[in-house]
Amino acid sequence: MGNYKDYELLAQEIYQTFLAAEGFEAVRVQHNVKIKGRSGCRHQVDVFWEFEMGGVKHRVAIECKDFASPVPIGRVRDFFGVLSDIGSIKGIMLSQCGFQRGAIDFAASCGIELRELRFPVARDWEGRIRSIVFKVTSFSVEVKSRRPITDQEWVRANLKLPDEGGVPYMLGGHENEICVVDHSGERITDFYELKSRLPNNWAAGEGFVHTFEMGDCAFLPIPELGPVKITGVEFVYDIRTATETVESRADDAAKAILKDVQTGRIHFFDKAGGVRQVQNPDDRDAS
After folding, report:
1. pTM higher than 0.85
2. Is residue 66 packed enough to be buried (19+ CB in 10 Å), middle (13-18) or exposed (0-12)?
3. I need a surface site. Which of 8, 39, 54, 126 has the fewest CB within 10 A?
4. Is 81:63 a contact under the CB 8 Å cutoff?
5. How far are the Cα atoms of 75, 141, 203, 207, 245 from residue 240, in angstroms, in the given order?
6. In this predicted model, what pLDDT tens digit does every residue of 117-142 receive, in sequence order?
7. How do the domains of the chain map onto residue ranges?
8. CATH 3.40.1350.10 is the classification of domain 4-118
9. pLDDT tier at 103, thresholds 50, 70, 90
């Protein structure tokens, strides 16, 4: 971690998340609190919270030790002295690098809980799924042409067109702007929606042809002509595929772990603010 204050703020954030996950959203976890002991001394507490349940006040003090080596017994004794002077308070000591054997034994004898709060390392994933590899195949439609099929009988009766040769008329705009409408001009569909409905059968290939039937009351608005009655829209298209391998690593999403030194229980905290307890491999074996 490298900075005592950063480590304390991380502890504050982690325990705020922890309490919220257990239903104590209203409890405020505080940083750097001064508490007056029975001796009259004011003790600095790195992380602190309190709440009342069933008429009983619960107070918790956390001592953070961002040391580069395991915490020795003397530091736990010092913390025990502070807790004893304050009175009626639960103590938790956090360390990035664990605790010496004497510190663990002393903490157990006086009711201080010891936790490792740190970034995950390789040994934390032993016996657990660390990553999942996905092979993702995506299918995309590449439209080669779209051909509106006009109602020839309606065209002969309603439009004056040359007897021979075609006259080009422009249909411009994005696919979702080229609409098929009914006789009153209300939108029925558009070319983008039709493209999304093209059958693909989840197989790559070229030269697929599909015609969408439009029924008896479908018109394609053409600026130079007005609404032209159509019976369908024919699409010619290819289907392309692309495959990629993606690895989802649990430790990439992990913000920190909180490990109970006495029980070995581990909670993972992710960067999105989630928390989950992970079953120990030994627990699975026992069951």
Report:
1. no
2. buried
3. 54
4. no
5. 65, 6, 8, 11, 17
6. 988 766 666 666 566 677 888 889 99
7. 4-118, 135-244
8. yes
9. very high
